[in-house]
Amino acid sequence: MDFLEVLAEIVGSILIFLKPLVVPIGQWMVDWITTTTQFFKENLGASLTFYIVICAILVVSGIVINILWPGDRPGSIFSKGVEKIEEYEDKIGVSEDEDIVDEIKRCKDCGNPVGDSEICPLCGARQI
Amino acid sequence: MRPSRVFRLLFRIFIFLLTISVTVVSILGGLSAILILSDTDNIQPDFDNAEFNLDINNSTLEIENINFSLPFKLNNTGFFDLENLEVGIQLFLNYSDIGMMNDTKVVKILDKTQNFGDIPKGVIGEFVFFGENSSFLHENFPHPITEINWLRGPPALEFYANFTVSLDYSIGMHSLSITILNLFVGDSSPF
Amino acid sequence: MGAVKNMVRGFLFTGIYVVFTIVIPLITFTLLFNIEGLPIEWEKQDQQNITFWLTAFGLLVSGFAFFKYSSPKQSIRKGIFALIQVIINCLYLWSYRFSGAAEITFIIVDYGFFSLSLAQMILIYMGIYFLTIILKVYDVIDFTINREKIRENRMKE
Q1: Which domain holds residue C85?
Q2: Model ipTM value
Q3: Residue A93: band (very low, low, confident or very high) from pLDDT cuts 50, 70, 90
Q4: The pTM is what?
Q5: Which helix (H) or strand (E) holds B66?
């Protein structure tokens, strides 16, 4: 009995201290839960079909997502995509370090981009 | 363990402690209720010292003053304070109405709720419920000559009461209310 | 191998949730509704409300439980679905209110009645539920910020 009295003192003190903080939060929780359940009641309270469909969608999508991204290795779709890009890069021999800007033809004299033109549109120098 | 997980663990322990506290307080509250209600000596309405005073004007036969008092004791043998103790009494008068072919009629003559505050744990609270003249519903009293059949019975008048005792316990988490209906409290007969 | 393990765990917990949130409450309430002479009386509408909403929210809770428990440890999707599951759980618990669980009244035959209100206790439990929601939100933020580190650790395992 003494033990229970001490226990009652301790838990009582914890609860007296935290009750003014927790009860208003609980009241707020009850308010939004009441509003939400009211919404469910008015709009989705006719049959269980909606809930069964949502449950089935969750389970099926859970299975699919787990197959694609199991979590203990890079996801299968992602890794296959990366492999394909690397394969393609190897084939065409493109280095990751190469810059596309470097590939543009420039005028030998002024450095202006000339493209496939034989004469620089800026300084008129021939590009042969 | 990452520092964020350590913080989470501490927060989790805090929630767990709070949940355990609420559960333990609920269990001890239930145990308190058993401790108090299991012994009839813990709740003692003192009917022997209850008083009912009725002064009737001899010429007009109208009620001049009426009051009622009931002492009672409540022993808080539980683990927590009993808070917000309220006692409500509704008093009914049963009589035969001459005007209605001597049909039995029941009228409410008192409706009062009194708050007695808190009873700390381990303390015996001694209180007196007092129904003063103004608490009585004078407009409901039957006229002694034109309405009450004094030859009925005996008794010509019977008094019944509804008692309601309500209080909060378990640090205000539980609100308890006990209602006793139609308890015979007395009668009166001039013949 | 990880996917199979995750799904087995998901199905296991979904089963547990279906049993505890739908099957046991429905059996209990069906038995209670059919017992005669109980001091508590239920309206037909109350019975329909209780069974419908327990099943409806029980299905949602179980569905989200599958997603949560089949997700990898400390993953963002696990955090998000755990959060949604706690919120749906609040709605589920609140549907018990239709059973009159917050206000219990017993009729004492030839004497009167006894009533017990648990409204304040429910408010405290709801406050604690809010703290659990905060914890789940914290998890989602933590899993998002420390995504790379969590992933590295998981790959090592």
Answers
A1: 2-156
A2: 0.81
A3: low
A4: 0.72
A5: strand B63-75
